[in-house]
Amino acid sequence: MPARLTLPAATVTLIVGWGDPLHLFGPGESGTAGDAWYSLVGGLRTSPVLGGYRGSGQAVEVDFTPLGAYMCLGISMHHLANETVHPDELLGKRWTERLTQRLAEAPDWEARWTVLDDVLASLLADGPVPSPVVAEAWSRLSARHGGMTLGELAGVTGRGSRRLQVLFREQIGLPLQSVARILRFQRALTLPYGSHGSLAELAAACGYYDQAHLNRDFKALAGLTPAQLCGLANHTPLDGTAAVEGSRTSVFNR
């Protein structure tokens, strides 16, 4: 299948696969073999990742909210920030092998979803409970598409800015300002194309200071200008591999 550029989004991804592996490429490596992954966990990122299957790879993908990942994986989420690791490093030796075997042997996809439901429910039962302060801050920040400052969130949650940053690092993975930046980027990327007359209007609608601020964030987070990225988005269907809860998580790399 065509290579996809995975974009920064406020999700933590678990992929468990069988068949041919997923190849991930670093900057400038698209013509090389890349790193081969049959299964992986990818944390919140502030840069894009290029990857694709070269053969008949089969996999299931679970996209967690950061707090959902914290509850299921049971680790301090900053260890996953901008990282890709094998699931066994987090969940124990042969965890992936046992799950992959059950998924591969399931008679159909409905049975595979049942397997996943059972596994995730077991992880949740044994996992930590997130701080109510972080849960409230995350809910407010995501509802506003990143449009709240650290000071504002500290005020509404009744916690100091430093304490809130510590909790975000542990249970979300990235600094609050970085998470807000990603949420704002996703808001700009998922508004209907052409719904604003200019990039300056799009910037204003999404909470950027001006068009230059929008351009800088797109280049930093995606390596592309807004026009380039919107062009790729228009040629990528919003199927299950490109969209999660209204976020555009990837585009075809043309």
Automatic annotation (TrEMBL):
InterPro entries in alphabetical order: AraC_XylS_family_regulators, Homeodomain-like_sf, HTH_AraC
Pfam families the UniProt entry points to: HTH_18
Residue ranges of domain HTH araC/xylS-type in the record: 131-232
UniProt keyword list: DNA-binding, Transcription, Transcription regulation
Highest taxon of the lineage: Bacteria
UniProt-recorded name of the protein: Helix-turn-helix domain-containing protein
Native source organism of the sequence: Streptomyces melanogenes
